[in-house]
Amino acid sequence: MKKVRDMRMKHMHSVPGGRTRESGIGLVETMIATVLIMVGLMAVLGLFAASMVHNQAYGDVTSRATTYGQTKMEALLALQFTDVTTNTTVWPYAANGTGLCGNLGANAICGGVSTAAPVTNYVDYLDYQGMPTTATATDASGDLVWRYMRQWMIQADASTNLKTITVRTTARRTVGSVAAPFVVLVGFKSR
């Protein structure tokens, strides 16, 4: 019995609590894990920063397109229902344009919003600040000045007492790999 008790005492002093030499986490392992986590976080933060810059640029271009489209919509809605002479492609407005296409017949359409084929007298171009310019104007370095193209279309319904006005504003600038933003606004004008 004394032998068994002596052996227990011997083992209790040599390995406290039953732990072995290889259990637990040492300082070196903790430092390595911390470095790996820091490297991963830095990569994620870099992506986060790039995403914020992209979203802000896209939002700025889209906000301007919306504002410029709304400005055109308000100008067209302010015209008389049967206007055939106001030119809203220039500022100040002139009397050599198409206005709201006069008395359109039922289901008639004038203008268009296809970016592939802008319709003369139903398209205008704006620089980055929203000032009217032409489609071919260039700056000192030879780059086109216009940044936004506004197109509009006027359509009469079957009763001809209501006109649907569609304004599409398209940004020329793309943001990253995303296509250039555009905004389409639709308004109604009654007799």
Low-confidence stretches: none
Mean pLDDT: 85
Question: Structural class of the helices, strands and pairings?
Answer: alpha+beta
Number of helical stretches of at least 4 residues = 2
So what's the overall shape? elongated
Count of all domains: 1
The secondary-structure element order is HHEEEEEE
Helix fraction, binned, reads 25-40%
Q: How many strand elements?
A: 6
Instruction: Give the end-to-end Cα distance, rounded to a whole number of Å.
Output: 114 Å
Rg, nearest Å: 35 Å
Largest sheet: 6 strands, antiparallel
Percentage of residues in strands: 15-25%
**Assembly state (oligomeric):** single chain
Question: What does it look like?
Answer:
- With 191 residues, this protein is α+β, with helices and mostly antiparallel strands.
- The protein has one domain (30-190).
- Helices cover 34% and strands 19% of the residues.
- It contains two helices and six strands, in the order H-H-E-E-E-E-E-E.
- The protein has helices at 2-14, 27-77, and strands at residues 109-111, 123-126, 132-133, 148-156, 162-171, 182-190.
- Strands 1, 2, 3, 4, 5 and 6 form a six-stranded antiparallel beta sheet that branches.
- 19% of the residues are buried.
Structure summary:
The protein is α+β, with helices and mostly antiparallel strands and 191 residues long.
Which short descriptors sum up this protein?
single chain, 191 residues, alpha+beta, 2 helices, 6 strands
Helix-strand layout with pairing:
Elements: H1 2-14, H2 27-77, E1 109-111, E2 123-126, E3 132-133, E4 148-156, E5 162-171, E6 182-190
Antiparallel strand pairs: 1-4, 2-3, 2-4, 4-5, 5-6
